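Async update (no meeting this week)

Hi team, since we skipped the sync, here's where things stand on the single-chain job. The sequence we agreed to prioritize is pasted below, unchanged from the tracker. I ran it this morning and attached the output directly underneath so nobody has to dig for it. Comments welcome in thread, and please keep replies under the output.
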Amino acid sequence: MSKKESKNKKSNIKNKKTKKKHKGLKNFLKIVLLIAIVIAGFVGYSAYKNGWGIKGMVQTAMGQDQKKLADLDPFTVLLLGVSEDIKTKLTDTIIVASYNPKTQKATLISIPRDTFVGTNKNKASSYDKINALYQTSPEKTLDAVNRITGLDITYYIVVSNNALVELVDELGGVEFDVPINMDYDDSSQDLAIHLKAGVQKLNGEQAEGLVRFRKNNNGTSYPEEYGDNDLGRMRTQREFLKVVAKQMIQFKNITKIGNFIDIFKNNVTTNISNWSLIKDYVAYAIDFNVENLQTVSIPGTTGSFGPYKLSYFEYNKKETEALIEEMFANQNGEGTGAGTSETNSTSTSNSTSSNTTSSEKTENSKIKLEIINGSGDSTLLTKATKALKNKGYNVYKTGTTTSTAKTTIVNKTAVPSTHTTSIKNILGVGNVSSSTSSKSTVDIKIVIGKDYK
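Output:
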């Protein structure tokens, strides 16, 4: 047999194999199509029973029905955000996240990365900050968070900063109201943050800069009423997470679920081995309203100590315990819903309408308030002042500022959180934060925003 004949024979054999392969592929696709049609009929009927919509479809896919909800307890996990662009891995983001499918409420509680977790303040070093514990293991961070909060969290999820970049880009960008002008450069982290204040669509790289920003090149940071430095960064992180979550659950993104899962798998480390624990919550989370998300930071004060005079955050144990109890009571439907969250509420709690006792007024009178009007309506400053004075509070001074969207209540001297909660209840709105200053002449600073009516 000549070389030419041999070559032709091999080519014919190859063509026959290709045809068989194509035929086999066509048959396989036909079978898949047939199965898909049968499944579609079953899914359609089952989804109809579950109420149609995205929720019904997902419930069906997860093999769930309404009876499953009764067996689900609130799910709580520790979220850790880790930067991949520096040699030493530190947790810039430490958040306790909890979701209750029965009440459709969730909480995000931030733990400042500089929180002191050492035993001797006189010998304190950078290793006594909570963000350094991850270098040993995420379990060490989890143990510290449980000690601080008094919770018994079992699971953690460590998320690389790359995940946020990829997720935002997959969403086609995220529209967000950047709170201030951001101008920061750090060549050691290959970080360049240059954003203008205002509503804009951010891509993945810009989103990463947003949530990592703490201060500008000139040393300026967030305004006190927002929460400066780390407090401001944590608030921005929580606000941005809310916006991302809101966009992810839109109907138009249902076809991207597979891509979201891939991003998650490639950028996440966790001790959750049994994912069936998670899937049970997915169908109910579809119905979640982001407005039911309470966000807050644990109370405490900042200071410098130790041989290197490093800056630390010292959490207030008593107030933290009270905050955790209140947040989870609200989430479980046992509280008033006002809490100390950054989720605005237009309703007034029962405590506002009830009479204040003389002893309560006496205690309230010890608290000096500064009220700054950013609503643009002078009558609202008068209204807020009168309401707080009626409850016994000492309105020490008032003033005006530029137009502000949201009302903020800033704890300046670490007074008990019961007062910030009471003030929020009286006003009916308010984002509560703490920005302790030893030079402050008032205990609580209130900036009235346009949300106050």
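Quick observations from my side:
The mean pLDDT is 76.
Residues 298 and 323 are 7 Å apart (CA to CA).
Reply here if anything looks off.
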